[in-house]
# Entry
Amino acid sequence: MKRSMVSVMILAAVLAFLYVPIILVVVYGFVPNGISMSFFGSDGSFLGFTGKWYRYIFTGHQSVRALLQSFWLSLIIAGLSTVASCAIGTTSALALHKWRGRLQSIHHALVYTPLIMPDILIGISLLMLFAACHVNCGFWTILIAHITFCVSYVAMTVLARLQDFDDRITEAAYDLGAGPWYAFFHVELPILLPGIVAGGLLAFTLSIDDVVITSFVNGAGTNTFPTYVSSMTKHSRNLPSVFALSTLMLVFTCVLVGLSKLITSKGQAKLKVKAS
Amino acid sequence: MSSPLRSRRAEWLVTAPSFLWLALFFAVPAVIVLAFTFHGHDISGGVGEWSLSTWRELVDPDYPAIIWNTIKISVEVTIWSIVLAVPCAYAIARMNPRWRAIVAGSIMLPFWTSFVVRVFAWKTMLHPDGWLQACCNLFSIGGGHSTILDSEAAVVLVSVYSFLPFAIMPLYTAAEKFDFSLLEAARDLGAKNFYAFRKIFLPGIRQGLVSAVLMVFIPAIGSYVIPQMLGGTNCVLIGNKIFMRAIQNRNIPHASALATVMAVSVLIPIGLAMWWKRRQDARDRQRLEAQTAKLFTAEGGAAK
Amino acid sequence: MNSEFLVFDHVTKRFGALTAVNDVSFSVKKGEFFSLLGPSGCGKTTLLRMLGGFEKPDSGRIYLEGRDITDLAPNERRVHTVFQNYALFPTMTIWDNIAFSLRLAKLPKKEIEEKVDAILDMIQMSEHAWKYPNQLSGGQKQRVAIARALVDRPKVLLLDEPLAALDLKLRQHMLLELDTIHDQVGITFMYVTHDQGEAMSLSDRIAVINRGRIEQLDGPAKIYEAPSSRFVASFIGDTNFFSGEIVAKDGDYCTIRPDGFPDIRAYNDKQLEVGQKVDLSVRPEKIRVTLAPPPPEKGASINVYPSTVQDIVYQGVYTKYWISSSGVRVAALKPHSRFLLDQEPITWNDKVFVWWHPDDGYMVESEK
# Structure
């Protein structure tokens, strides 16, 4: 098993490679000097850790106000585009699953192609559309762009779930007297829900993380968190606040995931108790 | 089925939302971009008359170099990612299921931090005053380059960092389905470890290899943020040029033409991969049919 | 149309070039346990799905209690299906699964509770009411699927290979249980299977289906003992076929001259004429295998052939012999009525006599 030791060592190195920036994100959140991004003064003395960036964030200090604004905008856009793309993506997956034919093969190509195109192309082409229609870029154009690239991801996630779906179950619902609407909302939707939730989570992550597409369609002055951060990389005194906010987000998501794991495992344990 | 949900009208109704949305916001814009490439550039920032001047200007010495550089860097990034990802996928797939879930999860964990922020952390790290640069200077790595930041090396490094998980995941999925007893069988028959790995394992996960290559190559070709933040003026890729032309110079035909070039350079490897997969499938089917036919004749013989 | 309970009237269904159901007509009595039996792809499931409303026939009508239900949607007919893979709703508890149709019918809450509890009691699943389907075993899922389909007392219960997914032991147990349930509820059961054993043990009547047509519709014993065609005889149970021509008639009997086999005497119930090509089916269990010739009191008219034993398969309840007689392989079953070792055992390459009474062969006219 010597050879597999080599692969394990490479894996360890890769994991370290992947985590070094994350660790730095956490560490840089405590940097006292926001310009040099250093823990050391110009004379080489250690300045210690500071919690002031966190304090700024929690108190809404004016130096981080724009950052927080962009963050809230990101959350709103991610939330709205998640809801919209879940609705559109789910109907899309249902159509792709239930019918076969010319219409659906075109439909499939429409849904699939955005997934294999670099996101910058979606950004530039939407910019061209908005320019051609003389639409002013801003909140709504960002939202439209985000929904556009999220729909495909949700549709494919739900479609994957539908592949395991047993059509006999829908037939059973009809057979027992349900109409199509009743069958959809009481039988199909609950089964698809995990798939829709997974697709929605993916959409939310993609939306909140997107910088390329947004920077094409945001117009002047409307910044989401990522575009704001990339605009402040040049000359800003408040860089550590970005790292502090990112650390908070990381902790928040970790706690959320941990909680959901705990709940599902507890649920399973409960079911086991009930079963026995 | 006679249920109303199966009728033609229902199909249109269910298909309409996504179909119309994507037609309007994906297909139509793509056509507009293509149409703009056949227009001249208007000094005022608009689109001029119909002409082929844009395509002629694309041969201008500046652009081919950028296109070539983008493809070269994308290939480099893809090779590095695959070379690192294959042993990782192999190692994860050989772990027991509990560890497998934990390690696979921790590969994805960095995604929970904003991409821009992570690239930004790299920028801080690679800064001439940063500790990584200091280390490099100490061991005199980097040779002639005085700094890592604002160089092609930085772009490749951080691109590999960003896209590596996309390469590991499909490879891991493929490796998980791989029957590792085949490797033992090969060793049993006298194959050296690495020979068995190369001749049995790699072909066994070829489906995953193809998707891993695409998963890295496509975003690398479309890369914009990484060269923007880490490449400086030394590493400008198609993505940056598109942004520059579209937003800063308001030269919409040029931006459109570059976007078209990018789309084509992505579609070629995808087309190749699809062609390859179709050929593989056809081969598998033929092989299966031949085997079944053999089986049937054998059975027929036995029945008599 | 007529007073029959359930009627298929010249029903035809095509899928592209394939005619799955070809001009089928039959009727089912109220309360009957009716089976559709045939090999896979014979059209039996299509028949069931047309009755359930999942497929529409290309021509012909289906009537239930005199009412034309051909064009009704599945949710508009009081016909429920037990699916092969159960198709229980995975996100609902067993209780909610069973209550599904009652809630749709908007029954008062109390009545729903009474009915669901009653049927849970009947299938002995009361203690599992709050489990989810994936926590049940195959047999339990099966019982829930039946209960769910029965709880609002449909006019007909359709069962699509309901036991196919169960292992042998469970299948035998469920057979008994199905029979009991049928007796308890008195609802018409329409049962689709490819397993002749299931059909035989449960059904009042069986329709044997082949290539989209009904080959024979009769009670189980009649189908076994008096198959109407070579297909039915070979599909239901094991049999030996002798194909030949009738060369002589004497009263109720006739003599058949098969190709490459000595003459055989057989009961000529259909009064077929000399010169008619026939297939004679002789079931293995009707053929005797003995080391000595048959005792004279059996009469001179029986068929006796000196033969050689080729293969012996011991199967516990009986032993199966493959015997070569005039170059033809004949299968015969011998039950173990006495302790095995009491008899002089028959072994490979023994010279034996195979014999059967002319009444034990059954003739069908050869298909062209």
The first helix of chain C runs from residue 44 to 52. Helices of chain C lie at 44-52, 94-104, 109-122, 138-150, 168-185, 196-202, 220-225, 230-235. The longest strand of chain C covers residues 303-314. The domain at 238-365 of chain C is CATH 2.40.50.100 (OB fold (Dihydrolipoamide Acetyltransferase, E2P)).
